[in-house]
Every structure is written in structure tokens, then in C-alpha cells.
Amino acid sequence: MRRPTAPLTVLALALALTGCGAKVADDRNDASGRPSSRPSGHYPVTVENCGTRTTYDKAPRRVVTNDVGITEIMFALGLEDRMAGYAMPDDKGDLDGLPWKAAYGKVPRLSEKALTKEMVLDARADLVFAGWNYGFGEDTGLTPAALGRLGIGSYVLTESCHHGADGTVRGVMPPLEALYTDLTTLGKIFGVEDRAAALVKKYRRQVADAAAQAPAPARRPSVFLYDDGRDKPLTAGAYAGPHDIITKAGGDHVMKDLKDSWTTVGWETVVARKPDVIVINNYGDTSAAQKKAFLESYAPLADVPAVKHHRIYVMDYAELVESPRNPAAIGDLARYLRGVRTDR
């Protein structure tokens, strides 16, 4: 689901956005080259998404989203009335108790599988909000370029932006900044800038409160994120949500040198870095209990402190991908990490 794919071209995104009254910015910039400022909620507005500036002449009215984090970004902004539906696999956890439960009840669920081009067409979407390997993918044919040829616009999740010469890696900024960027940019697109700003302020405060309680750097436990995989573990690099979640919660992310979002590494790397804690990403056909059992029985990990001392912590998928759940997840993990005593 998260394997890197081919890069999005500027032309493809420009074509894709024509369906919602949008076009690549030209003479709408000020003398400095930045998008011109305009009163809140007025059009046209110019935004930047994954390196491409685009001008919207009006707000999209029939948005289709893919997966839980992306859908909840729309809900957090109060934009459920602008949505035509969402697709979400049925392995993303319980929705009870969420502040967006009512929104989930209002917006049609198009599928319990990944989004497809046919679903988008049937929903009469004017904008698809998804990410590379969070809905968009060359292998499925659901790309901004393909949608653009159908007159349907696209917005790409910032956590999934491609970078690098060959477009095989993703991520262009720290994960929480990606969340704040998407909230702010979507606020401009839909004319809800004040709402977006209030959310960003709230989330920054939540993160700061958790970070203020973090242990001193010399005592911070090292943490490895385990998504899945037996031969090679799928994990999080510096541009995926867990990096900031672990770091702001008071942990030392052992894969912080990976300039990618979700990617695979070798088990020998995990063993060499000796994480004090392993965080399990809870989703998919393999349960968290099964993942934990594998980690505890896999011989090469026997002397890794996290396994040796039974320090394995489970978090839900929706907390770990870019989503409005990230700030609260930092607080929860911080409380756990404060109780970890390392040998350092």
C-alpha cells in the first residue's frame, strides 16, 4: 500500500485540477512571485501543493477521499457537506468515540476497499483528495493525470509528496508540518481559513504540552516503528507520521536518518540500532497480537532491549498516518515513554 511510485509531473497536476475550476497560477502572483493575498473565503485563490501552485476559481463541492486520515482531515475542517463520499478499508479501527462520528454518518462510504476510478466517476466527484500509495498509484491507474483527463481535480496528501530525481521516495517536510500545511492549504481552497488556523493552533498546543514533559535527551528511549513484514520490516522514515510522533513524545526515532516516508529496511539494521521500545502499527490482516508474537519469537531480535524487556506498544493506524489524530497520539505515547527506564 505504501510502496513508492512514479513521480507526479507539474503538467499532470495542472490538468487534474481543471475539474474544480482550478488552473496553474500565472499572472496572479505578486512582484515577489508569491501568491497574491485575498480576503478570507474569496476566489480565485492560489495555493501550493507538493511543489505546484494552482489557482482555484471556486471551492470544490463533491470531494471524494481515500482512507481514514485523509477523510478525517476533511471532517476536522467541517467540510463533510463538501464531500461526495470516501473509501476506507475495514481494518482501520473502531470509529466509536471519535469527534467525527456524526460526519461519518452523513458522508457515503463508497467502499471498504481502496478507491478506484470507477467509484470516483460514479460519485460525480470534482476533486479527489488522496496520496501516493494512499489511493493514488500508477499500478492502479488512479492518478491525478488520469483524473485530469476526465475533468476531475486532485489534491495530494503532503506526507506522500514525491522527492528525489527518480521519484522513488516520498516526503518533503517534517510530518506534523505536513499536517499543518494540508489543513492550512485546504482552509484556503474551501474558504475556511479561520477554522484551519484554529485547528493548527490547537494541535501545536497539544504537541507542545506533550513535548514539555519529555525526558532529557540523554534518557530518551530509542523507538522503532514496526508496520508489518517478516523478511523485511516496513517502517517509518523521517517524513512519515511516526517520526514526529515518536520524537515529540520524548523518544529517539531509530530510523530518523531515512529520508523517506514509509519504507522497508533490513532486520540487521533494527538489531544494530537496539531500540528500547517497538511501536506496532495496528491495522491489516495481521493483528497487533500476531505482530507482537512474531517480534517476540524472531530469534535475531532476542537481545534487542524492546523485545528482551517486553516493551512493545500498540498504536492504531489512524494515529500514525498523517491525520488529525496525530497530536493526541503524541500525548498517549509520551505517557508510555515516560515510564520506560533505559540502561543508559
Automatic annotation (TrEMBL):
Residue ranges of the region described as Disordered: 25-48
Entry keyword set: Signal
Gene3D superfamilies: Nitrogenase molybdenum iron protein domain (3.40.50.1980)
Residues making up the signal peptide according to the UniProt record: 1-25
InterPro entries, per database record: ABC_Transporter_SBP (IPR050902), ABC_transptr_periplasmic_BD (IPR002491)
SUPFAM superfamilies the record matches: Helical backbone' metal receptor (SSF53807)
Annotated transmembrane regions: none
Domain Fe/B12 periplasmic-binding positions: 62-344
Similarity comment: Belongs to the bacterial solute-binding protein 8 family.
Protein name: ABC transporter substrate-binding protein
